[in-house]
Amino acid sequence: MPLSPDEASRFAVLLESNAESLAARWSELAGAGLRGRLSGAELLRQTRDLRTAFQQALAAGAADVNDEAAAELRAQLSELSSNRARQGFSATETAISVFALKEATLQVLGDADDAATLRDYVAFSAFVDRAALFTFDSYVRVREALISDQAEQLLELSTPVVKLWEGVVAVPLVGTLDSARAQVVMERLLQTLVDTGSPYAIIDITGVPAVDTQVAQHILKTVVAARLMGADCIISGIRPQIAQTIVALGIEFGDIATKASLADALRYVLGKTGKRPVR
């Protein structure tokens, strides 16, 4: 249940009148689950800021963490989640840091055992629980964004375009070629062709474990795009097993030159330019 205005007001006063002792105890409890990976001074600063945000939200009459009066509290919780996610803490460790406010508050209340105080504490605990869940959700969103960014960076690193010779660039592919990676390959190859003015591009699939219809389509689209940029493409790395698979699937590469190895492809290109005989 949401906090009533009277309950919110009473706990706002409690958080204000016990500011330092509450923040210190909260910091101590939260730090127990972090195994020393965050300095005591930094943790105390965080709990002080959060205590202030909780107190101000309750003083403004926030009955739930999603209320307008709790906007600053949500901002503080989001910042905590973002920082913890980037520092490598888990979602559970982050949420437990917020849950610790309940125990710290209970210790401030002392041995109060009257029914009214217990009802107030139960309502306040539910408010803190919702704040911790908000923190957990915020952490997950930040973590997913970080993972997505890292995956994109790894994707770019896994699809290098290298200059083999004057006028010759190569894309050595390693691993599975799905739609997302094929798009990155195409974009990077086309940009390199523009930057270098190279008339030849070698797409080396030696490191691609298997070629099916989908992979072949991705390769063909890349070749067509490169041709539209004025470059001639050669596909290298056609191993016997891949050649058999291509024939069995009925995949047609048309007039695209194919070679068994990257070295053969480079010799072929240099032969076409008059620097080496074509083999």
TrEMBL record:
Domain named STAS: residues = 158-269
Q: Which Pfam families match?
A: RsbRD_N, STAS
Which protein is depicted? STAS domain-containing protein
Which UniProt keyword terms apply here?
Phosphoprotein
The taxonomy runs:
Bacteria, Bacillati, Actinomycetota, Actinomycetes, Micromonosporales
Q: What species is this protein from? A: Actinoplanes flavus
The protein's superkingdom reads Bacteria
- InterPro entries associated with the record: Bact_StressResp_Reg, RsbRD_N_dom, STAS_dom, STAS_dom_sf
